[in-house]
């Protein structure tokens, strides 16, 4: 079996907003193995993207990782920090939450990198695409030459007004170095951008959506990361371009051997790309396992509902069968102390009115489910009447806002919207 490159244990990320505490990610655990594609799937508002941002330490204020451990395998780093921080080293693994922020920053891009959801808003419109990729290359080179410490170009004089004027007068000065420019062009070529020399000097608005997504992948690869977190990398693209970008990710993975954590709401993308998958709901991973565990031998009714809402080409003309109801509010004071899916679950029982634990379906297996159905047959505990949660809903709307900062009002569908 392949070794874990990342072990996430009990991760919780909260946002402290004016409306109250939002439990965006709650006690999430999973492992990602070297060279695999691990997928995270769920509808909008389930906590997928915040999980990805937490892994690369990019949760900004008012958010904060409040609990959990992120064990990353890096023998060199383990040796470097073992003496000073013995409690956060376990063999070749280092708990990234226990090391100084400067260490985590130095790992970003070089060890763990991220492709963001929306390339159009992620690129700086006032710099050429080549410059921005070259900057990522430069950061990686500085990190390599000064391990565990890095300084972005923005710290230096390169962005002064004088240098901006100079950059327009002398285009080659826009790049930190000729080497980083050449590497940026190589990376653009690697991701299939035609005429990369010319394209490197173009601005983001001159790229099509598909090309910009490729450029973002090039930027994420600049540091030759071990783990690439790809957050909805194809959401904004049309179907043909989606297929091209997915093919590209597969090719790059085969070439470089990197590990990919793929975040998507699209079960088709999961089936096509992933080795293993975690299904998220209400900030939790409610079922995880191999594709076979989740697609064929699933236990959690939410997983079953998601799969049931996928359009079936065999029954053209039939209606879609979405999971009824809405994703739960993630506001702490509105979250009920029970299974978060109970108000939408067709198999809700009295036993579900307590928080279900993570349970392995087989003692020595990897298929883990957060649902009482791992131990009980439906009906072994008294089923809840259909109107059981109506009073709860009425109470919640009387007591204050029923909106989550993260919740969507869409019915669940694996293709129901973007992630967050
Ligand atoms: S714990 Fe109960 S309510 Fe929750 S998903 Fe399982 S059966 Fe449904």
TrEMBL record:
Bilayer topology annotation: Peripheral membrane protein
One GO CC term on file: plasma membrane
Record's keyword terms, sorted: ATP-binding, Cell membrane, Ion transport, Membrane, Nucleotide-binding, Translocase, Transport
Enzyme type, top EC level: translocase
InterPro entries: AAA+_ATPase (IPR003593), ABC_Ni/Peptide_Import (IPR050388), ABC_transporter-like_ATP-bd (IPR003439), ABC_transporter-like_CS (IPR017871), Oligopep_ABC_C (IPR013563), P-loop_NTPase (IPR027417)
Gene3D superfamilies in alphabetical order: P-loop containing nucleotide triphosphate hydrolases (3.40.50.300)
Domain of life of the organism encoding this protein: Archaea
SMART domains xref list: AAA
UniProt entry tagged with the keyword Coiled coil: no
Assembly notes: The complex is composed of two ATP-binding proteins (NikD and NikE), two transmembrane proteins (NikB and NikC) and a solute-binding protein (NikA).
PANTHER family according to UniProt: NICKEL ABC TRANSPORTER, ATP-BINDING PROTEIN, OLIGOPEPTIDE TRANSPORT ATP-BINDING PROTEIN APPD
Protein name from the UniProt record: Nickel import system ATP-binding protein NikD
């Amino acid at each position: 079996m392949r070794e874990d490159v990342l072990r996430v244990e009990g991760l919780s990320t909260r946002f402290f907003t004016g409306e109250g505490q939002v439990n965006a990610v709650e006690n999430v655990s999973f492992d990602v193995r070297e060279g695999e594609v691990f997928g995270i799937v769920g509808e909008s508002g389930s906590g997928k993207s915040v999980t990805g941002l937490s892994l690369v330490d990019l949760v900004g204020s008012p958010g904060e990782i409040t609990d959990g451990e992120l064990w990353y395998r890096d023998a060199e780093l383990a040796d470097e920090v073992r003496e000073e921080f013995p409690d956060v080293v376990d063999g070749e693994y280092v708990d990234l939450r226990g090391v100084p922020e400067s260490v985590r920053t130095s790992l970003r891009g070089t060890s763990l990198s991220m492709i963001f959801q929306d390339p159009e808003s992620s690129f700086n419109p006032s710099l050429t695409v080549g410059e921005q990729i070259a900057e990522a290359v430069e950061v990686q080179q500085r990190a390599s030459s000064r391990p565990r410490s890095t300084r972005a170009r923005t710290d230096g004089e390169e962005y002064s007004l004088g240098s901006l004027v100079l950059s327009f007068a002398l285009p080659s000065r826009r790049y930190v170095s000729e080497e980083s420019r050449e590497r940026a062009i190589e990376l653009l070529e690697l991701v299939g951008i035609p005429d990369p020399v010319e394209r490197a000097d173009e601005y983001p608005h001159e790229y099509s959506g598909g090309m910009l997504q490729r450029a973002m992948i090039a930027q994420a690869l600049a540091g030759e990361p071990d783990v690439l977190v790809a957050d909805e990398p194809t959401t904004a693209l049309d179907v043909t371009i989606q297929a091209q970008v997915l093919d590209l990710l597969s090719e790059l993975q085969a070439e470089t051997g990197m590990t990919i954590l793929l975040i998507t709401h699209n079960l088709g993308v999961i089936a096509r790309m992933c080795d293993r998958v975690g299904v998220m709901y209400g900030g939790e991973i409610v079922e995880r396992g191999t594709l076979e565990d989740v697609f064929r031998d699933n236990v959690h009714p939410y997983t079953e509902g998601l799969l049931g809402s996928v359009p079936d080409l065999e029954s053209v003309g039939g209606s879609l069968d979405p999971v009824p109801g809405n994703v739960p509010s993630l506001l702490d004071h509105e979250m009920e102390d029970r299974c978060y899916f109970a108000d939408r679950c067709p198999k809700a029982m009295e036993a579900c009115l307590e928080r279900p634990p993570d349970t392995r379906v087989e003692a020595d297996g990897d298929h883990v489910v957060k649902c009482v159905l791992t131990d009980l047959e439906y009906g072994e505990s008294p089923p809840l009447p259909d109107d059981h949660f109506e009073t709860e809903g009425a109470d919640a709307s009387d007591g204050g806002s029923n909106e989550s900062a993260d919740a969507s009002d869409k019915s669940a569908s694996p293709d129901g919207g973007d992630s967050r």
